[in-house]
Amino acid sequence: DAKTTQPPSMDCAEGRAANLPCNHSTISGNEYVYWYRQIHSQGPQYIIHGLKNNETNEMASLIITEDRKSSTLILPHATLRDTAVYYCIVRVAAGGFKTIFGAGTRLFVKA
Amino acid sequence: DVKVTQSSRYLVKRTGEKVFLECVQDMDHENMFWYRQDPGLGLRLIYFSYDVKMKEKGDIPEGYSVSREKKERFSLILESASTNQTSMYLCASSPPIGMGNEQFFGPGTRLTVL
Fold it and tell me: What are phi and psi of A66, to 5 degrees?
């Protein structure tokens, strides 16, 4: 599975969009980009995933660059409850067994 | 909603004790996983199972064993607990290959070994 690089921490004002970047320059053609988040003292929570097209669901949007070497998770209107560690993961969908969680980005949403 | 439950949120055991951590999922998922999470090390996969009675080693299986006698239940066993096994233990499940593959996590068990 490809390795990902994320900033260790970011701040965002409540109500503004939070844009979390992720670099995955060694991504392979059959690897998906997954995002999870972990709120303090809870298990990780799945947010969204995509292959090459941009994706949107009720939680977030995922923008993947055309060369697929980087992506951005967008929380359109961040709330205090979005304060968490966000993990960007790249893996094949068929594998699934070894989801490798790195250090992630600690997002602080401030009032 | 998928629900993954773990038997305890907090557990304190003594060195040398046998420890059982239980995980139950209610969505008929084939795949189940055990991770441990430590500060600065992220989540590390201990064992996973893709079917009843099937198990595969993850990245750090030493000192652990697992049991999956029923599809909904995946147990992690510490045969003889040691202080370096003090950690947060997370269980997860996921649907079969080709059906999303996102993992659903339980709330975690914080184990302290004295």
Answer: -60, -35
Interface of A with B (CB under 8 A): 34, 36, 41-46, 49, 93-94, 96-99, 101-104
What does the H/E/C string look like for A34-70? EEEEECCCCCCEEEEEECCCCEECCCCEEEECCCCCE
Which 3 state secondary structure label does DSSP give B38? strand
Residue B83 is classified by DSSP as G
**What is the bridge-based pairing of β-strands A105-110 and A45-50?**
unpaired
The conformation of residue B81, written as its DSSP 8-state character, comes to -
Report the residue from B31, B90, B105 with minimal CB separation from A96: B31
What pLDDT is attached to residue A103? 82
Instruction: Say how many CA atoms lie within 13 Å of B4 toward its Cβ.
Output: 27
CA distance B109 to chain A (A): 10
For B15, counting Cβ atoms within 10 Å of its Cβ (0-12 exposed, 13-18 middle, 19+ buried), the class is exposed
pLDDT confidence of residue B1: 64
Contact B52, B71 (CB under 8 A): yes
Q: What is the pLDDT of residues A17-34, one digit of tens each?
A: 999 999 999 998 888 899
Alpha-carbon dihedral sign for residues A57, A91, B35, A10 = negative
In whole angstroms, give the CA distance from residue B90 to residue A63. Answer: 29
pLDDT at A2 (0 to 100):
62
Structure tokens at B42: 């992220």
